[in-house]
Design goal:
Layout lengths: L2 H6 L11 H11 L6 H4 L1 H40 L4 H10 L6 H10 L1 H17 L24
Helix pairs in contact: 2-4, 4-6, 5-7, 6-7
Length: 153
């Protein structure tokens, strides 16, 4: 692009307003991944891009809420597997200044079960020292834990 074009791009046109080509380029950049006339025809691009932007903002809060609930469910299952109450586990980690957020705790429970087991053991020990420990040994019906699995030969 020429230097003069860059300098003059946002200047008003003689008939009022701004150059429409910049608006077209913006919509073209936002519609690059659509197929057919949705990508090439400007009038259809406008409707498609605006609908996509509207849907992305509407579903953002629902997506956050869904993943937050999924995160909580996974952590509750992992805590019950190790005999710890979920709320007490989080409170114990907070009192001991363990600064790991719930997302990382979930990933530890899935991919690093021994590390998560050590955090649960630390939580149990802290609760026993402060005499607030209640054993959560009841496994919900239908929940498959590592203790119930048969070792592979």
């Amino acid at each position: 692009m020429h230097l003069t074009r860059q300098v003059l791009r946002n200047l008003p046109t003689p008939y009022g307003g701004y150059d429409i080509s910049w608006k077209r380029q913006m919509y073209k950049r936002l519609a690059w991944h659509f197929f057919g006339r949705r990508r090439t025809c400007f009038r259809i691009q406008i409707r498609t891009v605006e609908r996509a932007l509207r849907n992305s903002t509407f579903s953002g809060s629902a997506r956050k809420e869904f993943f937050k609930e999924l995160n909580t469910t996974r952590l509750e299952a992992a805590c019950s597997e190790h005999g710890v109450i979920y709320k007490e586990f989080l409170k114990t980690l907070d009192e001991n200044d363990v600064q790991i957020n719930k997302t990382m705790l979930e990933k530890l429970a899935i991919y690093e079960p021994r590390t998560f087991q050590s955090l649960c053991d630390m939580s149990i020990q802290y609760q026993k020292d402060n005499e607030i420990y209640t054993k959560n040994s009841v496994t919900p019906y239908g929940e498959l834990t590592r203790g119930l699995q048969k070792p592979m030969l």
